[in-house]
Amino acid sequence: MCYRLVLVIFFLLPFDDVQGQPQDFMDRLDSIRAKVVATTEDSRVKALDLMELSYQMSSLGRFDTSAVLSAEALRIAKILESDTLISKAYSRIMFDKLITGFDENHKLLYDTAMFYAERAQARLGMINLHVDFGYYLGRYGSCPDAIGHFAAADSLTRLGETPSSLLLKTRIRYCGSLRQCDVFALIPDIVRETIPVAVKEKEWRLLASLYDLSMTAYSAMAQQDSARVYLEKFKDILPVVNRPATYGMFYNNAAEFHYNNKEYQEAYDLLQLGLALGKKRNSPPTKLMAEYYGLAKSSLGLGKLAEGENNLKESNSKLEESKRYFEIVLPFFSETEQVEVVEEIYTGLAEINASLGNYEQSYKYWRSGQLIRDSLKASQHHERIEELSVKFDTERIKRELAESELSLYEAERRADRNRLVALGLVSLLALSSLLLLYLRSRRQRKELEFRQQQAELRYSLLRAQMNPHFIFNSLNAIQSFFSGKRFELGNEYLGMFSQLVRRILEQTGQASISLHEELETLRIYLDLEQLRMGEMLSYAIHVSPEVEMELLDVPPLVLQPFVENAIWHGIAPKNGAGRIDIYLNYDERLESLHCIIEDDGMGMHAGNKPDNGHRSQGVDITRRRLGKGGRIDIRNRADQEAGVSGVRTELVIPLKG
């Protein structure tokens, strides 16, 4: 102990100048140096002690001192030419730097440390390297790389006898990384294999962590019975562990399990215990946000249950409590830019205010949540577009490169053969230029005429899509929901209706949109009609795998008129429930999209043909918009299949890109 104390003082001071210190201090320092020289003849022990001290300084946040100590350890290790010590020293240097961030320099330090560990055949050193480096990779968001390092470490533990402490560290961090990366299927088997080791070593805190990992993994995989078994095991070991941090982990994770199983009272009680524990430990408010957020959701669930039981007093009390908790956590999650949680908070506040009759406030929260949802959706869509664009551009560049090489080869072969006809080609080029100028002028006139027609068509299309009957029925549906105090359905219908109107107004002014956007608009329209008609309407959209929806452009609102015809003229007059099926396939030969819309409605009869009123208007406009390459075929399904009712509409849509 005396030796270590002297070593601490010695190596914390002499690497910096100590000028200006009192003489008695300098005398004491010289005395300490003399003692160290006398007690550190074993350079290997000295290097190991330096690395241990470096670790201690790092844990205290004194990274500069730690760096000096580890650098001195590396110097000694190189003098000794010990690959094992060199690997350990590089590891210490790397981990001090990893605490502040991650970059390629850290990867270089890791590779160097692993090189010396492998050369020394230091299996335990390699395990530690994989585990610690994987841990930091997981912290900085590199899930696949982190899991790869933990898997490598786990494989190395099986190649020989491994100390229990290192085995437990490896397995628990491995499972933690799998949970962080949403890879739950591997966790239960690893935990089952590791539990006997923790029991044998009486590592009750680590055993509690293993139970927690299995509980959350089984819950995420919807195996609730197995999750509940480990929940009880976790609960039973709490008095043995008897650590506030372990109790806090149990309260939060067990509460989340109960909440996901709609056991709101159990979740609420556990979160109250967690909140009381945090306050008792004087935790700062920011550390209690998870408990407050969980209480907000649990209170909302209890309020809705009480509302369903017509216990309005209890319902209002719980809803007010939920509202208070949501308002506590909203500033924190907004400031930390956790947008998905903020969107859920706005949704919860909108629902609570609607139930309490504060409709204006409910609408404001709903609008705020809608803006965040649109932003998230746009971000995800943009990422998908970029991914597909990179894939598309890569294939295109490869194809163009191959074509260029082939063209160059053919050009070289033709060069000698074509010299004699060069003069004739020049003359022909001059004549062709005159012809091209004439054709270009003619084409420009046609393009102007076409644009004018397109503008007229888009105006007609807008009038066709904004069917007065549909708007009238939608407003009636909204009024019915709210007058019947079905506020949740009313809010949902109103939000979808406003989103559909906005999309129609935006897309009608565009020449083309992606097939993905077209189908999103169609789904909103169908969901509105389904919400209005209830069980009387069902639908399904079937898209073939070869159809790249984000890369294919189609005229906007090209499918909706036919779907509207199917609902209004086929299914609505029918006595009973109706269904619509939409099939989309790519026709490679025609470079077009082949679409089939089928319903099981009334079909077309003498007084119900597609050439009257609004039913014909949208179809005629679409036929003109598709142009020469497009085709529309509408006929009764009974003409092709005996005993089947309804209408089958086939469209061939030329693709824009």
Tell me what you see in this structure.
This protein has 657 residues and is an alpha+beta fold. It has five domains: 1-16 and 42-98; 122-183; 191-260; 284-407, Serine Threonine Protein Phosphatase 5, Tetratricopeptide repeat (Alpha Horseshoe); 447-654, Histidine kinase-like ATPase, C-terminal domain (Heat Shock Protein 90). 72% of the residues lie in helices and 7% in strands. It contains 24 helices and seven strands. The protein has helices at residues 2-12, 23-39, 43-59, 63-80, 83-98, 104-119, 123-139, 143-157, 164-180, 187-200, 204-220, 224-241, 244-260, 264-280, 289-308, 312-335, 339-355, 359-418, 422-465, 468-483, 487-508, 515-533, 560-571, 613-626; strands spanning 513-514, 537-543, 553-554, 578-587, 592-599, 631-636, 647-654. The strands form two sheets. Strands 2-4-5-7-6 form a five-stranded mixed sheet, covered by helices on one side. Strands 1-3 form a two-stranded antiparallel ribbon. Helix 13 packs antiparallel against helix 14 (264-280). The protein is extended, with a radius of gyration of 36 Å.
